[in-house]
Design brief:
L-fuculose-1-phosphate Aldolase
Amino acid sequence: MLMEEARRAVVRYGCLLLEKKLTQGTAGNVSAFDPATGLLAISPSGIPYEATRPEDVVICDIDGNVVEGDRKPSSELGLHAALYRVRPDFGGIVHAHSMYATTLACMREPLRPLHFALLSAGEGEVPLADYATFGTAELANAAARAIGQMNAVLLQNHGILAAGKDIAKAFQVLEDCEWCAEVQWRCMCAGKMAVLDADQLADAARMYRGYGQKK
């Protein structure tokens, strides 16, 4: 079975989306990309996360052709492939309809750097991709244009896409973005919001790069 470890990760983090209430039903999708082979493993379309098995995960090439698997891949296969093409540093993507990030996306508001926790998504605000119907090439192209050097992008009136070197990192970015989105929403409700300026963000970014245990 091709990409067995990646398939298991897709299943595991799909279930975590539900456990952590970052999506609902079968909404959202998860993928992993192997740059050495040019293949990606992506969650199947319409199968509940808790019922998905590793063999249900579909292996495709970067052009969207199914290489291995009997299931139909996620309707957002093109979205994932487009991001892997423009950002070869990405090895994992999680797309979700988390409540607060989706709220901002439906307000057509970018996710602003109010707190250093957003640095996992990059140094700046999480941008908005122009609205396009889900599952279309237009949406894939809009997200690929908008993401720039950030590790996340809001999809107008849809949800959020988070990425990283692997699925675990992408999931962390998603969690950080969702927490920051709730903070921003609460600030907007209270009527006052203070965004970190460029110097403050740069200082925080320097500290962030040295955070945690290093090999």
